[in-house]
Predict the 3D structure of the following.
Amino acid sequence: MTPMEQLSHRDMIDLFLDGQLPAEMRSVFFAALAASEEFQADFHRATVIHAAAHRHAQTLQPPPALTASILAAATPQVPASRTRSGWFHTKALRTIALTAVATVIGFFIGRLSGPLPSITKLAMQSEHAAAGNAVAGQYTTRQAIPTSQNTPTAHTTTAQPKSTSPVALRTPSANEDTAPIPSDVLTAVAVMPLPTPALPVDSSPASLQPLPPPVGHTLEQYSAPLPLPPAVEEPEEEFILSIRQTTPLVLRQQRLLSPLSSSPLNNTMIAAEYRERTVSILAQCGYEQFPIYEVTAAADGTPQYTLRQLLWWVGGGMRVYAPRAEEGLFRTLRPMAGIVLGTSQYGVLGRGELGLSWEVLPHLSVQCLLEGMVHSHGIGTNWEHAEKLSASIGLAFRF
Amino acid sequence: MAINYTLSSDRELYRYLSMPEHRERAFEEIYRRYGQRIYAYCRKILFNTQDAEDAFQNTFLKFLSSASPDREMTNLPAYLLTIARTTCMDMFAHRHEHAELVEDFHGRPDQTVEANEINELIEMALQLLPAQWREAVIMQLYANMSYDEIASAFGVPVTTVRNWLCRGRQRLREILQPYFEERHVEHPE
């Protein structure tokens, strides 16, 4: 069944008025028109609207002053120089260079935003925890320990793992409090830093007086390792699937429609990404509103230009992410930058991205990017370029 | 050799734009052929005379500045319409939030009161259509563009344009049906 055979009677009205109704369908149309009053009324409404619009269109004439102003723009002018500018000023190269610079800047800004890479912090935490749970006797302090009898003495306290420590529960005996501790005991035990508030230490016998018990403090607080914040785990590798919607901010078409800007039309992009720590490789495809002229060769060899507004493209590239910060604003916001090279059905393209990935949930991010794209299309030496700067927002699912 | 610009094809006229000795006359002829249609499109899309005149002027200036001898122009009206469309989109994007969007139909000496009334109703009904249908209907009814030219301007197949136009105009008739019934113009004799 051809598309024409699927026409409704109401479709036929419009096609008939436009002169687009095929001859073989006209008999069907007239038969339907003769058979139905409702159809006739609809046909009448269509003709009234059609005629009114055409009559009104004829009255819409540009004002003479405007016409004169426009025609004055076509005064003869000196032909533009055919000299080509230097290689750096070629738009495609300039765009790629600026994109690369933006990528490098974005990468370093990202690195500065996180105080330490997560891997290093995890290693430090592991070491610390191991020390805190080591054999009793390794945590040693020379500070005076407050007692109930205020007897001048020096104490060496031994730390136990918090869950089993007898220190906080045990009351020292009188002998223990008053008996002098040999000096070799003090030196025999390895002295290690204890993660407690620094207190004045004086090893001279006269100064070894008990200090008044600090309000709200217990012995346990002096002996047990301080609790550490839970580690934020950075996955070694992730697979990221994202979809973004973009809107062009500036659009330029060299030689053809320059400048052509601010089209409100939306585009869609899908990316699959494999990330190892802060660097990823990705495959990306997009559906773009990108008015370009396809250049093809006619039979006599002359170039033919055909307007193409929609293009599909696929490409591959890489992204760098700032390391995840442990705290502060950048704990969930990760600056990112990327570059993608690809091809559409009409030519090659390069894209640069700079933006933020907001990791709102363990497996979900919101991506906000500023993207530059240059598209080259044509044949032989007759290449043309179109450039676009756009903003995008989308969701990324991390596995 | 004297050139008769009126008889020249669009392709030839476009080529003349790159020749200083022919540029002015060729541009005049292109303007004469398509100026009114582009102007009508701008007026109907932007719904504001001042914005429409700005968009119309910018369209032809962009067209003139983009003329290149290396290019073979295959569809001049579609090309002009594409520029006009983009320019109007720009106007929309930068339009002041409280801009007065009123097209004055009243007091036109060249049209009857009834004609003014139905034009105003059509204008209001157009604003109720989905954007793509509205734009396609305006291009077809007011700018007198063919299906091919509209398809080229949108970058979509002709069948899609045909579909938009049929759906759009049917919706237009449905919206205006109460007016026709009230005026008892349902069954003309």
Observations:
- DSSP finds eight helices and no strands in chain B.
- The two ends of chain B are 58 Å apart (CA to CA).
